[in-house]
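tmp note - Zn-dependent protease
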Amino acid sequence: MLLRIALRKKPLKLTALMTAAALAVAPMAAVAQENKGPPVLRDTETEQLLREYTRPILRAAGLEKQNIQMVIINQGVFNAFVADGRRIFVNYGAIMQSETPNQIIGVMAHETGHLAGGHLAKMREQMAQAQTQMIIAMLLGAGAMVAGAQGGGSNSGLANAGAAMFSAPGEMIRRNLLSYVRQQEENADKAGVKFLAATGQSARGMYETFKRFTDESLFAARGSDPYVQSHPMPAQRVAALEELARSSPYWDKKDDPALQLRHDMVRAKISAFMERQETVYRRYPLSNNSLPSRYAHAISTYLHGDLRSALTQIDALIQQQPNNPYFHEVRGQALLEGGKPQEAIAPLRKAVALSNNSPLIEMLLGQALVATGNNAYTDEAIAILRAAVARESEAPIGYIQLAMAYGRKGDYAQADLASAQAAYLRGDNKTARDLASRAKTRFAIGTPGWVKADDIVSAKPLPGQKSN
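out:
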């Protein structure tokens, strides 16, 4: 289920996730919210693969217990960065353009080098507590200042728009985000190669990727992208990296074929959800009968309205890999978005079981249960959704569906509280406070629900947010 957490002023159907009600959850068919920041992408299959890529690296770096999160950014260019010491941000373009697992693993090893080296140790405590959406929004605000200054001087509208995102304390955040000095980058290179060697992996992919950056000038200092500018790639640095990488005894080690297949499956999935249909079929022509190609075709088919054909294709995938949770998830998602929520329940139950109760897939199952309109499912939906949001705290869709379920049950106090939590996660502080204030009047003073509602009413805006 590739979900785009989108934030726009007018409702807009995108390719990402969505529910007929409001903010949605479903593979890349998203409904929009308000323009509070750039979208991130959520997908259990992709996130699980990235976690498996980074877990041994983090263990080698002594960061295994730090609960480092992987965040996928809805940007097609190749880039990855760290911003707050507890999240590694990866553009979906970095996954798409990494032909082998080793290439993206090398990038993750480099970013882990920044974390292990304490290169962000001076980041404000506020940044450490900020939500993912705000971190990205602040970073893009800094980029707007850079681009605006280049396009028309420091007084240009774009530069002023970017500057408006930062108060005096925010300026420190901007400097920290964009002040990666060359020595830090070189140290991160060395640390990344060290971590790769410690885990028995080649640094070839890391070198190949950074060599491409230099050859294509992707990290040119004159670029307007703040992430790009933060990673200068002089030729001498790439040469030093090559020498270091070649010294590893694992230089010629290849990726495991099974891991390569999973990597190719994720790339196919992202292509199907994020690219135009004609682009998908250029990447994966009908003559290509590989599993990743068939995966891309099935997703693209359902996204473009041919549910019957899509189900036939998905069933063929399930027949080949009956224990693949993501095939069952896509089947349930296709049925749900095709207006058949009752039929979506069974494959989504299977997906939840096979995925070891993935919270994002649980949210999709909860959505299907709610969408049936059958009150017999209400208590089950509430139980599933409460478990999901307890383990996945930054997905508004879970709270949205929970609010709908509570509303159907007539529990308006919990419905208001869940709606307030969803609004808060979207950065809509005014709506969150209004709903939480109403929820407080419905709960007995001092009860857990009242306390949670009071926390939202009293919450201060995150860095860069308006108080509304």
